[in-house]
Each structure stands twice: as structure tokens, then as C-alpha cells.
Amino acid sequence: MESLEIINARYTATAVKKEQYPAEQLPEIAFLGRSNVGKSSLINSLCNYKGLARVSGAPGKTQTINYYRAELRAVGEEVRHPFYLVDLPGYGYAKTGIKQREMWSHFIREYVQTSPSLRLLCLLVDSRHPGLEIDIQAYEWLITSSVKVQLIATKADKLKAKERQKNMSLYKEIFSQTETPILYSSLKRQGSQLVLQRCLEHLA
């Protein structure tokens, strides 16, 4: 596998409706998951840019669709693939008001179903908690929406080796209609090359 890297990553735009999507048409790789699953940390880790996406210890803080323009390339090569990383609001935070949750779900649905540039949606799940009903519901909805989905199990560094093996087997069984799940640690950047390779497959 060739070594890949993201360069020139920068914040570009924030949106809550399609009229606010960036004017520049680029392929998009989006990240969706339960609140506090580690979407922003994963984006920072992939880009090797600690302060790119805002990270909060409190769930439910990402309340908009945030776009980050970046370029993907093989290390040392000149060919670059410009694209957007798209950080979607987290779902399922109980303390968020009903009206706020409905608004978020509306513009997440609008983005997933209408964005002409969406190439791949990375569904993030917590590697410690396989089979959460809310993650299964999100997965089933994405599959019926005909979106290409890559499952990423985050926070791998919080599990022992046997737990990782057991939980990843469960994830493969539960989310059987996607590519093989990728185990990821934002802290150690474990799994970053696998994720970048999947991105490249949909950008090249």
C-alpha cells in the first residue's frame, strides 16, 4: 500500500442548508456519527493538523455542517486530489432539545440525499460499544439512501487487543453491507492509511 497524506487542509465554509454549500465544486468525503464519537478528532488526525476541526469534550457541540478543503496525495508525489472533508453534526445527544434535533436531522438528511459531490460517507462508531441501536438505525438509513458507506470504529486505543478483535468481529457481522470496518485511533493515528486509501479510491 502506498503511503498517503493530506496536505493544505483548511476550514472553508459552514452550512445548515444547501444554499450555503461551498461554491467550488469538489468531491466530498463526509463524516457522520453519534455525538462525541470523535469526528473532529479523526479529521484532525487524518490531516495531521491538531487545530483544524474544533474538538469539544461536551457532546452535541458540532451543530453545523463544516467543510474543510484539502488535497490528498501519495507521499513525495506531485499528483494531488483536491476535495472537501465534511464534518456533519453528531446524532443522538439526549440533552439537545427536540426542535434542535429535528433541525439537525433535517439538514443532515438534506445533505446526504442531495449533495451532488458526496463520494463517500464515513460512519463513525465507538469501538467499545458495538451494536448500539442508534448506530444501526443510522446505518440502515444510509444504506437505503444508496450512499457509499465506510464504517470506522474509533477510540481503538481505549481497548485491549482481545477486546478489539472481539468487537471488530461483531461490527463486521452487524454492518455486513459495507466494506470491511476500519479500526481507528486518533491519538495514535492507527488506521489512518486505510482510511486515506479508501478516500483515494473515491477521489481518483
TrEMBL record:
**What Pfam families does the record tag this protein with?**
MMR_HSR1
Q: Which GO terms describe its biological process?
A: division septum assembly
The GO molecular function terms of this record are:
GTP binding; metal ion binding
The answer to whether UniProt assigns keyword GTP-binding to this entry is yes
The protein's matches in InterPro entries, at most eight in alphabetical order, are given as: G_ENGB_dom, GTP-bd, GTP-bd_ribosome_bio_YsxC, P-loop_NTPase
CDD domains per record:
YihA_EngB
Q: List required co-factors.
A: Mg(2+)
Which keywords are on file for this protein? Cell cycle, Cell division, GTP-binding, Magnesium, Metal-binding, Nucleotide-binding, Septation
The UniProt record lists the EngB-type G domain at 25-204
HAMAP family to which the protein is assigned, alphabetical: GTPase_EngB
Report the family membership: Belongs to the TRAFAC class TrmE-Era-EngA-EngB-Septin-like GTPase superfamily. EngB GTPase family.
Cited function? Necessary for normal cell division and for the maintenance of normal septation.
Q: What is this protein called?
A: Probable GTP-binding protein EngB
Organism listed in the record: Megasphaera hutchinsoni
- Gene name of the encoded protein: engB
